[in-house]
Each structure stands twice: as C-alpha cells, then as structure tokens.
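User: Good morning. I'm curious how 1-deoxynojirimycin would be positioned relative to this chain. Could you predict the structure with it bound?
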Amino acid sequence: MSTASTPTATDWWREAVFYQVYIRSFADGGDDGVGDLAGLRARLPELVALGVDALWINPFFPSPMADHGYDVSDPRDVEPVFGDLAEFDALLAEAHGHGIRVTIDLVPNHTSDQRDWFVQALADGPGSPARARYVFRDGTGPDGAEPPNNWPSIFGGPAWTRVPDGQWYLHLFAPEQPDLDFTHPEVLEDLAQTLRFWLARGVDGFRIDVAHGMVKADGLPDVDFDEAGLFDDHGPTDPRLDVDGVHDVHRMIRRVLDEHPGAMTVGEVWVADDERLARYLRPDELHSAFNFRLLTADWDVEELRDAVVHSLASVAGTPAPPCWVLSNHDRPRHVTRYGDGELGTRRARAAALLQLALPGMAFVYNGDELGMPDVDLPDEALTDPVWTRSGHTERGRDACRIPVPWSGDAPPYGFTAGTTTWLPMPEGWAGLTVAAQAADPDSVLSLYRAALQLRRTPLASGDVHWLTAPEGCLALRRDGGLVLWLNLSGAPVALPEGRLVLASAPVVEGLLPHDAAAWLEG
Ligand code: NOJ
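Assistant: Good morning! Here's the predicted structure, ligand included:
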C-alpha cells in the first residue's frame, strides 16, 4: 500500500498532526466566557507540549453567529468577540515561532444573511445583479407560494426561504446562511480574494467547509428521498451535493494556492464512496480531504478495519495522504460514541493509538487529548440552529462543543477569567483538566503526548502492512517498524515478540487487555 512520501518544507502537512481549535471553546483570553484568539495564543505552549504540528482554527470571522461562525458576514476580517486582525497576526507569528503551522476555515458555499451582498440582494429585488450572486428563484404553485423544489436543508426544514417580494432563496443550512451561486464570476473572484488575503498574512492553509457543496445540479431537480438527517450522504444522485461542476471550483482554489508553495487545503467532503472522494484529490484539486470513516465507525473490529481499508483505498491512486478523524465539532465525541464513562475512555485511548499509528494526516479535536465526553445539556442551554430547525427533535451539536477544562476543581476550570461560559461546564471535571492530567503519567493527555512524540520518530514511517492477528484483533506494521495491536476480542491476547513502546492500558506478562491497543517495535 503506497502512502505518504517523506515530508519536505512544501509538503509539511503530509504526516502532520493537526489540532482542531473550536475557537469558542478552547480558551478565553478575557472574561466573557467565549474562547478567542488571545486565549489560544496564551495556550500555545500547551500545544507545543502536546506535540502537534499544525492548527485548524474554526471560523473567527465577523459573524452574527447564527451557526457559530459558519455564517460569515465578512470573510476578510476578525469577529470582535474573537479579537482583531492584529491579534490574529500576533498569534500567527507566535505559532510559527513555535514551529506550529496555522490553517484556517474557508466557508465558500454560503455567507451570512448579514453580509453586504445579501443585504443588497434583498434591497435590490428580483432580477437585480445583486440577486444573481445567490440562488434566488420564483416559487411554484398558486402565487408561487410553494418552494422552487423539494430540497431539505441539512439542518432540517426546507432549504428555501421566501422573502417579502415573493421570491425564494436557497440555503442548504440555516436561513441565515444563503448559498452563493458559483456560476457567477464575482463569487469566484471574491473567493480568490479571500484566499489571497489570508495567504498574504502568512496562513499555511485552509480547511474548506462543505467542499462538495458549492455547485448544484443544473435546473435544481427535486431530491428523490424524504428523510434527510444532519450530514447524511445520499450518494451521487443528490442534486445538492457532490455535483461534477464543483471540481472546477477546486481547480480555481488550487491555482491560487499554488501561488504560495507550502500552502495546503483539506476539504470537508462528506462523500463516502472511495472513487467519488478520490476525484477531489486529483493533482489540480484539493491537497487532502478528511476521511470520516473512523469518525462514523462503531466500536467494532470489522468496522474499524473497514474504515482503515477504505481510507487508504480512497487515496491510493491520488497524490494525497490519508487523513484520519476521530471526532470534530459536528459529531458526538468518540468517548461518548464508544459508551461514555470508564468504558468509553478506555476505548478512546485505544482508538487514539490506532489513529496515530496510521500514515498520513491526523486531526485531534480540542479535548480529544483529554478524553472529553459529550455533555447532556438542558434544553435552555442549547444554542445550535439544528435544535430549532428540527422542531426540537434533534438536540444538535452543543454537547460536543463544551469549553475545554484547564485547571481547578469547579466550573469554569480556568477556561475564562469570568464566571460563566457560553455553554455550561459540568461539575465533576476536576480530574479531566489539563493541569490534573499533565501531572498524571497514566492520563489520556500523557498518552497523547507520548504517542505524538513517538509518531515523529522513524519508527512511525512508511506504508502500512496488515499482520495476522487473532479473531477480534487488528494488527498492522509500518515500514519503520511500528507495530500496532488493537484488541476487541473480549479477552486478553498475548502480544507478539518486540519491545513494547506504548500501551493504552497496562500490559501484564505480555497480555494486552480487551478494548486496548499497544505499540511495539517489531
Ligand atoms: C460544516 C461545519 O463543520 C458545520 O459546523 C457547519 O454548521 C456547516 N458546515 C455549515 O457551514
């Protein structure tokens, strides 16, 4: 199996560990209970100690926050809640000083309904040039009172909203996030301008939001399914997503990126099919794309094996490395997915050793390194538009976005100088804090630190080869000599010969416990 080549200055990202900073929840540099750029800057030494190579910072651009920053009203500035451009520049310089690269979120598919373009589109009326930048259509049925087609929004409810003059506009997400029309040259030019603006400031790359969504099928034909859940992949017949024309947008993005050797992209492409996903990774398109198979796999040995096999297969014929994700800000955290509590944590520790043993890029979502679980929040604390859009049937994503606990015995655990946090933090997290875990050699944090250090050594280099393993186990070897064993067999298994370098649970007399993983030098 061919994977990544040896990284150079321009492809530093091929084997990099990226740390995802959900900016609202990482660290508050002030006292308003919302994380910000100053808070992130102050905590950079912690990320150096963790051993990450790069950051992906979720959107910090001016936004009315209908979708916590994914509704951007100015793509070339900083939201005052998070800081300003000078603060961003200082963060960038300081991160670079530590040898940490910085990638930021690019949200091309839609804008905020408060962006000047959309405000103008509403004011100027049907047929105006300003409307042509978005997807406005007349309705159907008597008086055009029905939406132009049957498309559901990914957040629930229809993907169309009617404006007072009778026309409808398209929003694949919330009504506050109108979709742009990528057949309009100004839309493409504006995107190029945004890319150049941040590249000129020195960013090292972009995570691209809904990278399979910018172009819609000609004629906007109806979808042929009734139920649409959050981020469901309906395959190649979905006229809203993964439409061939989107690849032209990626080619344009790549041309701009190529002006800055060393700058990279990672696409959020919710396309499960290996071949369809590979199309985004052609030499003139994205540098990489998340593979969400580990994030969607159950704690089941065959599902995990399948996730690895497909992730490797999807990049095999492309220049891209594999790209592994266990959790992010859109899905339940893996501690919770794997059963929560002691059980979920034990499995999450093992999963970390699986993820970090694999070749290519690995994304660690802030809090993964602490074993953070989701938190059940009361209705009144929920802020995700999914909660309201779904008519209160889907609780949304707040549970996986709780602020990171840094120190102390009680909320807000050093997250803010204030007393409250934008999402409430629970009691009982004293043992989960960075300070508590840094002092404990057996903590999840210590496991991550050790794994990231070993991952930088020649041991963790080269291709993957599957090894024969007992039923219920996975075993693989990297060319550099790192051997991973993962045991889901229900009983302890004897590890093979080789020096044990790391384990997610105590290995006694050569036996790897159930729901545990080990790294050996073999
Ligand atoms: C994907 C992002 O990860 C998610 O948080 C956001 O709500 C949607 N795209 C819409 O931008």
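The chain has 15 helices and 18 strands. The longest strand covers residues 101-106.
Let me know if you'd like a different ligand tried.
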